[in-house]
What we know:
Blueprint: H1 2-6, E1 12-15, E2 19-23, E3 25-31, E4 35-40, E5 43-58, E6 63-75, H2 78-83, H3 87-91
Antiparallel strand pairs: 1-2, 2-6, 3-4, 4-5, 5-6
Amino acid sequence: xxxxxxxxxxxxxxxxxxxxxxxxxxxxxxxxxxxxxxxxxxxxxxxxxxxxxxxxxxxxxxxxxxxxxxxxxxxxxxxxxxxxxxxxxxxxx
Length: 93
């Protein structure tokens, strides 16, 4: 029973590529109208798109909701960060 309560869990729900709800959020590292960088239970996550804005944020509940035109959702693990040529790829080398 104790092992199940410590297991990391994350849910990502998207509606029509316009509303994105993510659980397991620890912190919002940075955001603007084109990119969000989120620290999650399962690693850093980037959300890219256009006209992005935060609809809801609750760090106590570990929940964020993002609205806008969503183009990309990607985890920044070791392999992905090395391939990225952007600012965040260099930052997490």
